[in-house]
Amino acid sequence: MSSQTSPAIELRGASKAFRTPSGALHTAVRDLDLTVERGEFVAIVGPTGCGKSTTLTLVSGLEEPTEGEVLVAGEPVRGIGDKVGFVFQQDAVFPWRTVLSNVMAGPRFRGTPKAEAKERAREWLARVGLTSFEDRYPHQLSGGQRKRVALAATFVNDPEILLMDEPFSALDVQTRALMSDELLDLWAGTGSSVVFVTHDLEESIALADKVVVMTAGPATVKEVFTIDLPRPRKVEEVRMEPRFLEIYREIWSSLGEEVRITRERGAGNAA
Amino acid sequence: MQPETAVADTVTTKDRPAKASTERTQARARAARNRRVLVYGTRLLLLVAVIGLWEWFARAGIIDPFNFSMPSKIWDQIREWALHGTAQGSLWEQIWYTLYEALFGWIIGVIAGVLLGIALGRVRFLADVLGPYIKVLNALPRIVLAPIFLIWFGLGPASKVASAVVLVFFPVFFNAFQGAREVDRNLVSNARILGASNRRVTLQVVIPSATSWIFTSLHVSFGFALIGAIVGEYIGATKGLGLLVSASQGTFNAAGVYAAMVILAVVALLAEGLLTFGEKRLFRWKPAEPGTER
After folding, report:
1. B186 vs A88: CB contact, 8 Å cut-off?
2. Which residues of B touch A97 (CB under 8 A)?
3. What is the pLDDT of residues B92-137, one digit of tens each?
4. Cα B98–Cα B100–Cα B101 angle in degrees, nearest 5
5. Which domain does B119 fall in, by range?
6. pLDDT for the residue A205
7. Using one digit for the tens of pLDDT, what is the confidence trace for A201-252?
8. Domain residue ranges in chain A
9. Does residue A120 surpass a pLDDT of 80?
């Protein structure tokens, strides 16, 4: 019952503190309240190192919150669920597996028979345009192609929730715009909810329905902006629209302040 | 091939630069070939010089041939063993015994080392409990265990296998342990998110990424296995190359000792070649290291 009506992700007063190697307690996020509706694309922006990624690890179940609650589809998160897909910042494809075998990994781990897994993997490889590369090993691909493999490997599991941790930050600018468009295309058909962490404000506005601005660390939600740009969007084109610039200016006035605080702190530490 | 067809198609004005570039390519290929010839030639010359000097010094009496022997005598010794057999039986039998003991000990040591290394690398509790003991055992000079194994297991192959095992186990263990510890955390997280159970993470993420660590130790450890077998045979045996060494030493036959050494070196090189071959097959997924051909 509740799983049908409840939002896809809910964080209620979630905090996470880590023990640093020197023994001190480092709070990454505090009092996090955030709701992601079903089928919604939410981008999280914030100053570097503020704890954006920690938010994702809490939702994925890789880490547990120190305080507060994390709910996925109305259920508290306990361990890693099967609803979640995660695209990492660094390459996380298996270098000893071929492209096809990498994309098959998810279904195979979840007990899908080999033939069916292969069929589904081929389908997703076709969608990301890597059909002719299925026998290659990751080191034989470009950075953009490896990212496509990672996307296919994530989407093949049909995740209800897609968590992305600065997935395109290691790519060059052109490839990045291309991948963003591709991501929007892939996502459009699935109806899954996306949480996309980035430090690039332009990217976040171009992609998302909602942009969440985090404060300087320990991070918490500062403001949430709704992006009313029409879909379907083309990343390179939407950037030129006057409404885009308006939104950009509005969000930057909020985000810029946090970036400044972080920078001053960094300077203070260095002095 | 490309430049030649280009030459045929294009008009004469473009002919010249195309020709010049083919010439340059050929010159470069020639230079590379010359360098290769030079390296191999010098290598051969060095070998001939060392062996020739040894032979000459021994014949001229600059070094005492009784103690140092000489290449021609060593060669005669190898021929005699190969054609007429040794005092302990045919030469091939001796080689086979040593190889069998080394290989058997190596396989047991590698399996035990890999299993325990991966287990301790994955299970924190085991590592915490057993860690100090393994360090202590590793600190022991294990080669002195060979006489003890001789007492325990007798003159047969079992005592040599045992000393090969203890020599092989530790390097393999430490590499497997390190390999399991240093697995990319992103890969493990990714596998878990994709739905892998703990067992699958171990089998399909930890073990594949530890294989390059383990293989490094396999090369070294096969040498150790041979050492274990030879030392065991040297101390006391009924067959094997180590026995040939000790028997030759007992009869003041320096050529015999050297001959056994040469045979051992050849055996070790062949085994190493086999390992490298297997490694290349297994690591097709790895990018070639810069500057090496695969």
Report:
1. yes
2. 285
3. 888 888 889 999 999 999 999 999 999 998 888 988 898 889 888 8
4. 65
5. 71-282
6. 92
7. 999 999 999 999 998 878 888 899 999 888 888 888 888 899 999 999 999 9
8. 2-83+165-171+182-270, 91-158
9. yes
pLDDT band at B216 (very low <50, low <70, confident <90, very high): confident
Is A86 within 8 Å of B186 when comparing Cβ atoms?
Answer: no
> 3-state DSSP call for residue A130?
coil
- For residue A109, give the nearest of B187, B196, B284 by CB distance: B196
Report if pTM > 0.80: no
Q: Which residue in chain A is spatially nearest to B205 when comparing CA positions? A: A94
Are residues B208 and B240 both part of a single domain? yes
- Angstrom distance (rounded) from CA B208 to CA B214: 10
Kindly determine whether residue A139 and residue B187, on different chains, have CB atoms separated by under 8 Å: no
Q: How far apart are CA A247 and CA A241, in angstroms?
A: 10
* CATH architecture assignment, domain A2-83+165-171+182-270: 3-Layer(aba) Sandwich (3.40)
Q: What's the structural domain count of chain B?
A: 2
Q: Which residues of A37-50 are buried (b: 16+ CB within 10 A; e: fewer)?
A: ebebbbbbbbbeeb
Q: Is B194 in Cβ contact with A106 (below 8 Å)?
A: yes
